[in-house]
Amino acid sequence: MQYTSYELLWLFFIYSVLGWAVGVVIAAVKRKKFVNTGVLSLPMCPAYGFGAVLNAIFLTDLKSAPVFLAIGGAVLSSFLVVVTGVVLEHIFHRKWWDYSEKKLGFGYITIPLLLLYGAAALGELYFGNPLLLKLVHFIPHGLGKIVLLIVGVLFLIDLSGALAVVWKWRRHINRVANLTENMQMLSDSFEDVITRTVRKRLEKSYPNIETEKILDARRNEKEAEKTKFAEGCGFYKLVWLFLIGALLGDLVETVFCRFTLGWWMSRSSVVYGPFSVVWGMGCALLTAFLYKYKDKSDRYIFFYGTVVGGAYEYLCSVVTELVFGTTFWDYSSLPFNLGGRINLLYCFFWGIAAVVWLKGIYPFLAKWIEKIPKKIGPALTWILIVLMCADMLISSLALSRYSARQLGEPADTKLEQVLDAHFPDERMARIYPKAKFVEK
Length: 440
Prior knowledge:
Elements: H1 5-31, H2 46-58, H3 66-92, E1 105-106, E2 109-110, H4 111-136, H5 141-179, H6 183-189, H7 193-205, H8 211-223, H9 235-261, H10 277-290, H11 298-324, E3 326-327, E4 337-338, E5 342-343, H12 344-369, H13 377-406, H14 414-422, H15 425-431, E6 436-437
Antiparallel strand pairs: 1-2, 3-6, 4-5
Helix pairs in contact: 1-2, 1-4, 2-3, 3-4, 3-11, 5-7, 5-8, 9-10, 10-11, 10-12, 11-12
């Protein structure tokens, strides 16, 4: 079943409201009082809406396999939760929620939550979506569009206000952390009623983000003043890890294919150079997500790596198919595969890779990256970023044209003619020997 944009919007708002209601009920049971657990003032929790839409887009083709659908729902929702948690932690330097101390807890998620996410995916795709869309289709289409427009405008206004509050909050936290220890300055800076109200509501819902705790974290961060290039786990470090991971990933896959398949083949994601973007992004993401847990046990890191890596590979497969009409790998012939996009064995490889990366390879690479002279490091990094972005852009255009040629589409523009001349089918087949084209 393919969902229309109209249906997906309805599902987003409906599940946002339902998710908010469930969160409020759970919080009321735990705290014995009403607590608005949402970030917005409206009775909506967009994370649930986004999760439902992602399930509808990415997991619909797994409805014929309930077990795999449940696993896919658990992996996809966990990935969304982890990404959201990391982003919020980066903004506030505090975790909004943390299950590390709980039994079967792994930072932002727990084993029971994984089971719940899997069950939720089953309930949504088998029962929830058909029922909700049947009700939605009772609404006249014109009236439905008007309702969506009104709700959408209110949602965007509320979301913009919440983001503005968060941005202003962060700016003032930075200012106070840099200039003074006087907490009175912070309270004076939040004189407008809306900002103060939203801030207090968020602090009640998520005690981990109390302003004083954030300030303590920022002060500690300032005390450890950086003296080396790319020290810690910042932007420059992640860029270099992406580039190195892309190169090493391509080389490892090439050698692996040589010994398992008996012949050399290109495993590059780009037309210029031996770089695997999937591996590069995987290295950067694993580092960004797991850096703070690098001193945790191998079991902890393995679990996180398995979930994050599996979700990441699945999303990469779906996105490349939607954008380019091409699949670059297919595991349908392997046992315990999920729609041919990932399989359990390779997910375990991601977990093992996470342990090896954080415990062995990352410390070695980080030491050498930090040896780059601080004066030339930023400029050199930006030059490499521009070159890689240009390579990826040209590769995307060449791939799109390669896919179009398979469908018999002629070169109508000058750009398409240039692409056909420089990247004919023979060259593209050498660069992407495993590419399979999917009918759109």
